[in-house]
Amino acid sequence: MTADTEGRPSLRATPEMPEGSGAFVREAGLEIQEVTPTRLVGTITLDARHHTPWGIVHGGVYATAIESAASIGACHAVEDRKLVAVGLTNTTNFVRPMTSGIVTVEARALNQGRQQQLWAVSITDSAGRLVAHGDVRLQNIAPAAVD
Questions:
Q1: Is residue 109 part of a domain?
Q2: How does pLDDT run across 29-88, given as a tens digit for each residue?
Q3: Do 136 and 70 touch, CB atoms closer than 8 A?
Q4: Where would I find the Thioesterase domain in this sequence (predicted)?
């Protein structure tokens, strides 16, 4: 992870995963196509790596994508204030099981206050059907210094 001139982690959201996203998020496979302070769009190519022992995509993949999309978008919204946004709650609803395919992850800000943000994230299959939906509430905080 890189740091800014004041020793804070650099979490700038770009169309690629943030440098400090960690192996867990990278392995989930979220590829970001668009990010603004109020919206994020990405995709995940689901395959056997994402399966439960019963052959369907693990719900944790969707929960991870929802948390990550909301967090990256929310961080993008407060980066000009030299803040980051961290998740407080993630309520993920699983709607449709999948075994493989490309899903679209679309996050949008519902409310962006001085201290907190609320984002809604929908994951849809290639036919546009809802696979999972989540709401993430985030707190805007000053990032910790990088040692």
A1: yes
A2: 899 999 999 999 999 999 999 999 999 999 999 999 999 999 999 999 999 999 999 999
A3: yes
A4: 55-131
